[in-house]
Write a structure and sequence with these properties.
CATH architecture of the largest domain: 2-Layer Sandwich
Number of helices: 8
Radius of gyration: 19 Å
Shape: globular
Strand content: 15-25%
Structural class: alpha+beta
CATH superfamily of the largest domain: Histidine kinase-like ATPase, C-terminal domain
Order of helices and strands: HHHEHHHEEHEEHEE
Bound molecules: adenosine-5'-diphosphate, magnesium ion
C-alpha cells in the first residue's frame, strides 16, 4: 500500500463519512431509549449488533490510516509512560476479543484493574527503565503494536497471556500465550498481509492484517520483531523499538 494507491485513498475518504453517520445514528437511537422506547429485546440486540459492527469497521479504517501514515514515515515525537499506553491498548484489545472482561475493566478503578486482569489470566510484568521513565516515540503507534499483539494472544490463548515490558535503552515488549502455537513452516507467512492460518478450514477469523501492520511499523521504527513458537507450544512475540 503506498500513498499513490488511488483506490485506498478513495476508500479511506469515501468510507469515513458514511460510517460516522451510521455510528452516530445508531448511538443516538440507543441513547434516546427513554424518549423513544422502551425497545424490546430484539430491537435492542439489533441496534447493539449494528453499533458493534460499525465500531469494528471504523477501527479497521483507522488502522489502515495508521499504516498509511507509518508507510509515509510520519511519526509524532512524544514523551509518555508505557504504562499509560499499555493500559489503553489492553482495554482496546480486551473489549474487542472478550467483551465481558472488557466491561469489568471499564468498571475497574486503579486498584482493581490489575486484579481483574490477573483473575482472567492476563499477567503483566513491567521492569527495566521504562517502568518509571518516559519513553520517546509516537504513542499511537506503540499502542497499535500492543493492541494487535495483545488481541492475537487473547484470541489464541488456552487460558493465559503474559505481557512483559523491559529494556534499558530500547523498549522491549514481549507477548506470550499458551495456545496452539504456529508451526515453524508457517512462521514467515503470518507476517504477510491477509494471511490467516485458519482461512482454509473454518473460514476467515480475522482479516490477517494485524501482524503485517505491526511488522511494517516496527521496521519503519528501525526496530525488530521476532517469534518463538512451535506446534502446540504457544507463541511468544517479541518487539524491540529504539527511542525516536
Ligand atoms: N498468538 C497467536 N497464536 C496462534 N496463531 C496466531 C497468533 N497470532 C497470529 N496468529 C496467526 O497469524 C494469522 C495472522 O494474524 P493477524 O495478522 O493478527 O491477523 P488476524 O488477527 O486478523 O487473523 C492469524 O490469522 C493466526 O492464524
Ligand atoms: Mg490479529
Amino acid at each position: 500500500m503506498t500513498r499513490k494507491d488511488p483506490l485506498v485513498d478513495l476508500l479511506i475518504h469515501d468510507l469515513t463519512g458514511p460510517l460516522s453517520i451510521v455510528l452516530a445514528s445508531v448511538n443516538s437511537l440507543l441513547n434516546k431509549e427513554d424518549k423513544l422506547g422502551p425497545y424490546n429485546e430484539y430491537q435492542k440486540d439489533t441496534l447493539k449488533r449494528a453499533q458493534r459492527n460499525a465500531e469494528k469497521a471504523k477501527a479497521l479504517l483507522l488502522e489502515i490510516i495508521e499504516v498509511y501514515r507509518s508507510e509515509e514515515g510520519l511519526f509524532r515525537k512524544d514523551q509518555f509512560l508505557i504504562s499509560d499506553v499499555l493500559r489503553e491498548a489492553l482495554i482496546d484489545a480486551v473489549e474487542v476479543v472478550t467483551p465481558a472482561i472488557g466491561e469489568e475493566l471499564a468498571r475497574a478503578d486503579d486498584n482493581s484493574f490489575d486484579e481483574v486482569l490477573t483473575r482472567n489470566g492476563i499477567l503483566i510484568e513491567v521492569c527495566g527503565r521504562y517502568g518509571e521513565s518516559f519513553f520517546t516515540h509516537d504513542p499511537k503507534k506503540i499502542r497499535q503494536i500492543l493492541r494487535n499483539l495483545i488481541s492475537n494472544a487473547l484470541k489464541y490463548r488456552k487460558s493465559t497471556m503474559k505481557l512483559k515490558i523491559a529494556g534499558d535503552l530500547d523498549l522491549v515488549i514481549s507477548v506470550e500465550d499458551d495456545g496452539q502455537g504456529i508451526p515453524e513452516e508457517k512462521q514467515d507467512y503470518i507476517f504477510k498481509r491477509f494471511f490467516n492460518l485458519k482461512s482454509k478450514k473454518g473460514g476467515p477469523e480475522g482479516l490477517g492484517f494485524g501482524l503485517s501492520c505491526v511488522k511494517n511499523l516496527v521496521e519503519k521504527m528501525r526496530g525488530e520483531i521476532s517469534l518463538k513458537s512451535g506446534e502446540g507450544a504457544g507463541s511468544c512475540f517479541t518487539v524491540r523499538i529504539p527511542p525516536l
